[in-house]
Design brief:
alpha+beta; four-stranded antiparallel sheet; two-stranded antiparallel ribbon
């Protein structure tokens, strides 16, 4: 099993969720986060004072999938989240050693 973490633009969350459900990814977690990369930040005015916003709002989605779903999940996330502009995000894939469903005690792929 693999854990896929994707940092995407907030307005792309629904598109990504819908695309993942079409390939039978049954669950994911979404968290509002802030960060920066090459996109850096931007300058804003507030009550006449100029200030720099270093961290930009993003959404981090996390999902655990079976090995045979990894490439399809990456493909749909990439396609659904892409705007073609800087700051579209990143995808990280890591190994998952064990998963336990708390309610039933099921483990590993049965728990996903």
């Amino acid at each position: 099993m693999k854990k896929i973490e994707a940092i995407i633009k907030p307005f792309k969350l629904d598109d990504v969720r819908e695309a993942l459900s079409e390939i039978q990814v049954t669950g994911m977690t979404a968290t509002e986060v802030k960060g920066f990369g090459r996109q850096k930040g931007h300058t804003e005015l507030y009550r006449g004072a100029e200030y720099v916003v270093d961290f930009l709002p993003k959404v981090k989605i996390e999902l655990v999938v079976k090995e045979d779903q990894v490439d399809a999940a990456i493909e749909v996330i990439t396609t659904a989240a892409r705007t073609g502009k800087i700051g579209d995000g990143k995808i990280f894939v890591t190994d998952v050693d064990r998963v336990i469903r708390i309610r039933t005690g099921e483990e590993n792929e049965e728990a996903v």
